[in-house]
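[worker-b] picked up task from shared queue
[worker-b] task type: protein-ligand structure
[worker-b] ligand name resolved to copper (II) ion; SMILES cross-checked against name lookup, match
[worker-b] sequence length check passed
[worker-b] input payload:
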Amino acid sequence: MHGTMTDTARCCSPEMVKPTLPDQTLPTGGNVARDCVPVPGGRAVLGTDRPVFPVDEEGPARRATVKPLWWERGTVSNAAFARFVDATGYQTEAERFGWSFVFWSHVPEQQGPTHAVQGVEWWRRVDGACWHRPTGPQGGAPLADHPVVHIAWTDARAYAAWVGGRLPREAEWEHAARGGLGDVRYPWGHEAPTDAGPFRCNIWQGRFPDHDTGADGFTGTAPTHSFPANGYGLFNMVGNIWEWSSDPFRLRTLKRAARQVANAPRKLLKGGSFLCHESYCHRYRIAARIGNTPDSTTTHTGFRVVYDTPPLKPDP
Ligand SMILES: [Cu+2]
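[worker-b] inference finished, payload out:
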């Protein structure tokens, strides 16, 4: 079930492999409020020569040509996703399968015992957890300005198509995250976050997975437009939630025995989440990367949309 999980410590992602569901036919031309900025193209830095998790193939640093794009400044919010669902009747994978993964300390007490995922016991399977009940049926509705979560890759792709955009590729994502600063480790530069601040992103403080002190203001998601934007005006490119990209996740260098599992079809995610901490899952770096099956949904997975042409203005 966990694939490459044993290769490196990861807060990151329990995996799901589920039967394929029929596609839902959706209209296009969806119209939601978008807060977009143009990001110039150029020769992007991709990866790093100082990898923390070489097994993830963070390195070596190389160059890729990236086109100019329009970027949503934040990840897709619950308010925007609700508008999509209202307009299309779309049902997310977590809703169709009836469950999703929730971080243990967010599961409401009334939920009762939950099934822990072996090896990453802080992840709990919660029946009825989905984007509009992010901690399960016993918990509340999500906050409108927070990122939508429990989103499968297929859900992200469906939303992006509806609004006339798409998911970014890895090179595009890293280029945008660096905000014009060159070969930097974080969207704000080289300085590593500490538990004492200054707080520039939403990650874990304290001892993972027992106690998040929330010193950065959050023990779960933060609003999509929180913390200072980077040089291109983009918010929360690292931390907060993992963001699906359009690229597949393939590891080239794994030993043959591991390859079969590790090369199961996966999609690449970028950015790290509110669960990442230097002590355990130091993946709130621009070059960090994980893969997960397109079916997998968790409380810390969502997405951001990019546009090849200037996006539509929303209806007043
Ligand atoms: Cu992590």
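[worker-b] attaching auto-annotations
[worker-b] The radius of gyration is 18 Å.
[worker-b] releasing lock
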